[in-house]
Write a structure and sequence with these properties.
The protein is an alpha/beta fold and 206 residues long. It folds into two domains: 128 residues, Response regulator (Rossmann fold); 57 residues, Winged helix-like DNA-binding domain superfamily/Winged helix DNA-binding domain (Arc Repressor Mutant, subunit A). The chain is elongated. The relative contact order is 0.09.
Length: 206
């Protein structure tokens, strides 16, 4: 399956700016969707891969307020702010809230393109982590309660005999459960299972 092409979402109340940015991004092969107000953008229920170019000063809901509302709605997308009236406190607030970049007009096209590429890369990585986490959760859902218990002890480094003593079962039973959980978790080795557990922050309580 081919990956979905990233889209640059642009929100600016200046039609000439929207047109210029539309031409700029399309000139380098990027898909673009433009909006004149925050309210128009908020009609979107979910974002595809890409990033958001957001003017700070907008009629009605401001760019910074839109950033906050998107976070509240759990609509995660990397944001690059652009403004002709920016200041240091404003830029600090935007960056602390997760913005990738804060560019003051006039800016070089290349600076904006670099920021957009960085934002798209960040979005791609975030989506990949989210997909991997979802896949892991699906694997966990396949485990029986006993296999969950066995895995807890396996990732702590206990051998089969010790696990059997902890659970009050035969060692052969532990071996069977261990083989099944390795299969379900798609782990080719103990080290692979432990790395998976560590990568996703799994603790012995998990």
């Amino acid at each position: 399956m081919n990956p979905v092409e990233p889209t640059v979402y642009v929100v600016d109340d200046d039609a000439s700016v929207r047109g210029a940015l539309n031409n700029l991004f399309r000139s380098v092969g990027l898909k673009v969707e433009t909006f004149s107000t925050a309210q128009e953008l908020l009609s979107i229920e979910s974002f595809g891969p890409g990033c958001l170019i957001l003017d700070v000063r907008l009629p009605g809901v401001s760019g910074l307020e839109l950033q906050r509302q998107l976070a509240e709605r759990n609509l995660t997308i990397p944001i690059v702010f652009i403004t002709g009236h920016g200041d240091i406190p404003m830029s600090v607030k935007a960056i602390k809230a997760g913005a990738v970049e804060f560019l003051t007009k006039p800016f070089r096209d290349q600076d904006l393109l670099d920021a957009v590429q960085q934002a798209i890369d960040r979005d791609r990585e975030a989506r990949s982590r989210k997909d991997e986490a979802a896949d892991l959760q699906e694997r966990f859902a396949l485990l029986t309660p006993r296999e969950h218990e066995v895995m807890k002890y396996v990732v702590r480094g206990l051998i089969n005999k010790q696990i059997a003593a902890e659970l009050g079962v035969a060692e052969s039973t532990v071996k069977l459960h261990r083989a099944q959980l390795m299969l379900k978790m798609k782990a080719e080795s103990l080290a692979d299972l432990i790395r998976t557990a560590e990568r996703f922050g799994l603790t012995e309580e998990d």
